[in-house]
Task: inverse folding
């Protein structure tokens, strides 16, 4: 009697290739930006650190909105707009066809890097305040409040943008297509 060998599941490299690339990209970018932000923000001072944190939070919210919008788009809309030669429709169609990659890059890679950078900015604010405040209990309280405030504002902004992104997905991605065409001077067939 012949014994059957158990089937071994193999990892499909093509299926997980994008995730592996995103891992390597996010590892490299987050290390680079974390190092740069910690060295630069330490010299920025309190006001500039706050402004920088606000910029990173804004970028994180906008890219999260793009990630949500690209997954909620209808490919038929972009195919029709491409036939009409609408500006931004070619890039928009490419984004929608690769929605899982675009969403992963926008919401995960950019969002996480901005989270790291805003956290580093919060740490710089805390460091500058510890020189002023000599009470350790007050320092811990302020540190907790700053971290909570950064997280709360980011989560609130992303939550508000999700509904907007879903309801206006086609319009948002078409606009992203137009902006991309202008920035990179992409000419589409007429």
Result:
């Amino acid at each position: 009697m012949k014994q059957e060998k158990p089937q071994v599941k193999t990892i499909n490299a093509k299926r997980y290739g994008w995730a592996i690339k995103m891992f390597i990209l996010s590892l490299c970018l987050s290390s680079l930006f974390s190092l740069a932000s910690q060295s630069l923000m330490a010299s920025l001072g309190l006001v500039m650190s706050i402004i920088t944190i606000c910029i990173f939070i804004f970028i994180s919210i906008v890219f999260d909105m793009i990630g949500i919008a690209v997954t909620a788009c209808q490919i038929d809309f972009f195919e029709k707009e491409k036939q009409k030669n609408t500006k931004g429709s070619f890039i928009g169609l490419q984004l929608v066809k690769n929605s899982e990659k675009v969403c992963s890059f926008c919401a995960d890679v950019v969002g996480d890097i901005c989270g790291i950078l805003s956290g580093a900015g919060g740490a710089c604010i805390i460091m500058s305040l510890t020189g002023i405040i000599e009470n350790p209990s007050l320092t811990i309280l302020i540190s907790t409040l700053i971290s909570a405030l950064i997280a709360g504002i980011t989560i609130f902004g992303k939550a508000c943008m999700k509904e907007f992104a879903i309801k206006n997905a086609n319009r948002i991605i078409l606009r992203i297509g137009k902006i991309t065409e202008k920035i990179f001077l992409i000419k589409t067939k007429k």
